[in-house]
Design goal:
single chain, mainly alpha, two-stranded antiparallel sheet
Length: 167
């Protein structure tokens, strides 16, 4: 009986914690708690200070070996792309995928290759990866599929303008 009461209490706590969480505005595939505070680099990015944000994130990834370097380098690449520094963006996006293969996460790989194709100005490759992701994505990768579609639809625009455009 005591065990049942303990498990019921734990279940209640979990339900309350889930009810307090909301969708992460920076990654719709995740949730955040009410006490969530974005890191400084994200605040700088939201203000359009892409170089400052990239510098801050580079500092963090070099300072703290426990960080998710894959994710950090990916975001650094995106920040340079937002600042129209495609050469640096490509370098950091590729760095984010070091040691990874398509078999590790096929759908993210398509998103990665499609993003590179946009930055390298290869519309045919972007179309290929956009179509692959559009046809075969799980709900988790819906936003990535939409992003590649925006990059393709607005191929004539800068990365920053294309990803923030309506489809």
């Amino acid at each position: 009986m005591r065990l049942l009461i303990i498990f019921s209490f734990i279940g209640l706590i979990n339900v309350q914690a889930q009810n307090e969480q909301k969708i992460n505005p920076n990654n719709a595939g995740t949730t955040i708690s009410p006490n969530y505070q974005p890191e400084d680099w994200r605040n700088l990015s939201n203000q359009g200070k892409y170089l400052e944000a990239a510098s801050e994130l580079l500092y963090l990834v070099q300072l703290d070996s426990s960080r998710n370097a894959h994710s950090d380098y990916w975001h650094i690449g995106q920040l340079y792309a937002d600042d129209n520094q495609y050469h640096k963006a490509i370098f950091y996006l590729k760095k984010s995928m070091e040691g990874k293969t398509e078999e590790d996460d096929e759908q993210f790989w398509w998103y990665y290759k499609g993003t590179l194709a946009f930055l390298e100005r290869d519309k045919d490759q972007l179309k290929k990866y956009t179509e692959l992701l559009q046809k075969n994505h799980t709900p988790y990768y819906l936003n990535n599929a939409k992003t590649l579609n925006r990059l393709l639809t607005h191929f004539d625009k800068s990365y920053e303008k294309a990803i923030r455009s309506k489809p």
